[in-house]
Every structure is written in C-alpha cells, then in structure tokens.
Amino acid sequence: MDALGGFWGLNGFNHRRKKNNSSGDRRNQRKSGSSDSVDVSRDAAGYQFPLKQAVTAGALTFTGDTIAQLSGRWKKRAAALKQSSSDKPDQEELWNLFSEHDWVRALRMSTYGFLLYGPGSYAWYQYLDRSLPKPTATNIVLKVLLNQVILGPSVIAVIFAWNNLWLGKISELGNKYQKDALPTLLYGFRFWVPVSILNFWVVPLQARVAFMSMGSVFWNFYLSSTLSK
C-alpha cells in the first residue's frame, strides 16, 4: 500500500495516522517484510513472465510430442517388419526411426507449451488458490470441477488453433473443432479428473504446472496409442 500511496500522492494524508500506528506497523512489517517487498517489486515492475514454469512446460510438451512421434513410427515399422522376412529392426531401421523426426511439429508443440500452456496454466492455478485458498474437500472438488469445465476446453481450443495456425489451415479450424474437440475432451476427462485431484490435494502451487505437464507427457502417449489402433 505504501507504493500505491506514494504513486497517488496519499502519503501526506496518511502521515499522522502512520505516526500513531508506528509500533503496530513495525510489528506487521516484521511479520511480512520479505513477502511485502516481493509483492511491491512485482507491482512496480508489472507483469513478470513465469520463465521457470514456461521452460518446464515447453520441455515436457516437447518430450510428450517426441514420444508420440516415436510411438507412431515404431508401430509403422513393426507392421512393415511383419510383412518382411526380418524378425527385428536392424541399426539402419532404428536410425531411420529417429532421422525422420518431424522437428517442425516438435517446435510447434514446444512453443505452445512455453508461450501458452506454461504461463496460462500457472496464472490459472494462482487464481484458483487465491479464490479457494483452504484445502478442504469442498474446495478441492470445486477446483477439479472448474479445471475440467474451464481450463480443459480452453486448452483444447487454444492448441487446436495454434496447430492450425502453424499449418496454415486456420480456415479449417471450425471443422477441426466439430470433428475432434468433443471426443478429445471426453477422453481427457477420464485421465485428467484423477490427475487434477492429485494436483490440488498433494502438489504445491509452484510445482503444479510441472506436474500437469508431466501428465501431458503420458496423456499424449496414451492419445497417440489410442488413435493409432
């Protein structure tokens, strides 16, 4: 509040009041000195990009996409080997498995995690913790429900749009939503509801983006395996 008072010219108005309450203010400052200084510095500097959470989300999204790509190519190779006389892939086949990696797709997914999912989900979890701070059963159920009703559809909408934008197919986004959005959301409910319960019940705030991104790694692998059947 001191920073706000100085900015708006209210320090003179509050000067006598601060003198009368100086002992109480000093006690309060001793209790919350470090946290207040952090908050003031953040307010003075404006929005601070959550770099740690963004890097974590970008790296884990890249990992999930890599697993999905390798899984898809491995299944194609395995199907081809069944039709040939070879029982197992040779070194050249294994090298081709990695050399055919789609790096543009990997970049597309990792930039989504870094620029959008990491910062966005971190801000979302901060908002939920401020709105529902107590770890009661009711609050946890509300957080899980809000996570599925608001965050889940938002993530699907954003990642579909991000993907189509990179592919230059933004005009086909409406058809993409109609065809794949609802099935993806319903599959996601099966996986993310228990993961979200663990996320809000056990995982601390600063680790939630990483935990959910770790879940994304397994979800991408599961989704890739399901769609390739």
TrEMBL record:
Q: Where is the composition biased (Low complexity)?
A: 32-41
Query: Taking the first listed entry, what is the main subcellular location of this protein, grouped into a coarse class?
Result: membrane
- Indicate where this protein resides in the cell: Membrane
Q: Does the keyword DNA-binding apply?
A: no
Membrane disposition: Multi-pass membrane protein
Q: Which InterPro entries match?
A: Mpv17_PMP22 (IPR007248)
Its domain of life reads Eukaryota
Q: Which Gene Ontology cellular-component terms appear in the entry?
A: cytoplasm; membrane
List the signal peptide residues: none
Indicate yes or no for the key word Transmembrane: yes
Q: Where is this region: Disordered?
A: 15-41
Enumerate the UniProt keywords alphabetically.
Membrane, Transmembrane, Transmembrane helix
List membrane-spanning regions. 145-165, 185-203
- Give the family this protein belongs to, as stated in its UniProt record: Belongs to the peroxisomal membrane protein PXMP2/4 family.
Q: What is this protein called in UniProt?
A: Peroxisomal membrane protein
Query: Which organism is the protein's source?
Result: Brassica campestris (Field mustard)
